[in-house]
Amino acid sequence: MTLARRHVLALAAAIAASAPGFALAQAKMKVAAIYTVPYEQQWVSRIHKALKAAEARGEIEYKSSENVANADYERVMREYATGGNQLILGEVFGVEAAARKVAKDFPKTSFLMGSSGKPQAPNFSVFDNYIREPAYLTGMIAGGMTKTHKIGMVGGFPIPEVNRLMHAFMAGAGETNPKVEFTVTFINSWFDPPKAKEAAFAMIDKGADVMYAERFGVSDAAKERGKLAVGNVINTQDKYPETVVTSALWNMEPTVDRALKLVKEGKFTAEDYGPFSMMKHKGSELAPLGTFASKVPADVPPRCRRARRPSSKASSSSR
Hints:
The chain is of the alpha/beta class. Helices cover 39% and strands 18% of the residues. α5 (132-145) runs antiparallel to α10 (300-306). The longest helix is centred in the middle third of the chain and has 17 residues, at 160-176. It starts with a helix and ends in a 13-residue tail after the last helix.
């Protein structure tokens, strides 16, 4: 080995010793996600989209698993943790105890999970889609669009996260149309389009002419019967241009980007990321009226623009 080469190697070793993070400075952050439903499901699609965007920017190395059964969740979570992933995301609504146990066993790994519970020190942060503000606005529009004064609502499970959005939507509809009546059904599944579609048909048969599509399948029923629908979490108007009036959109980027920044800086702690889904952080918004811009009653859009958030009664309690 030449003297010059020895000098270079010695200098590199000295730098690495004085700054342990130097050798890893150019390495991409390893991030993993575990989903209990398909990537296409509304709620999960928002997380996946934000992480894929970070991957496209070259910031992270991203791996994920979809359709993971609750019984397998802990095993998959441990595999990702032992695999050296620095940040692990997912939804643990049905596996809270198991997920929190894994987080305790891997205190140096950062976890950011959709959860009904509170943060768990030192490394388990929680989030949810706090999009009740645009949900309230979509309700105002729906109240102005219904002609039968009957609105059908199909949800996944009757848990606080779902009820919160439904209550906000109902409060908005009631503000623009005090005569409106609601029919609510839960399909007890996060992803079962055929079941949601059948539930929507039953409501339409009883007079509902506007459907709140908290689950996939509802807009299909509305389209087939020539009724209207209001979307949730994602904008599907391009697929249903004559059916979906608008949607309450969830943007996961503010939450994901904050977590990535804190992990990179070594400052990630257990906290509630819920507020980063709110409109003031650009975590949620009302979808453009698009094909319905000229069809919504003239007095409804201005009122929606003035409304900033639902009343405290409406926000009491989706995934």
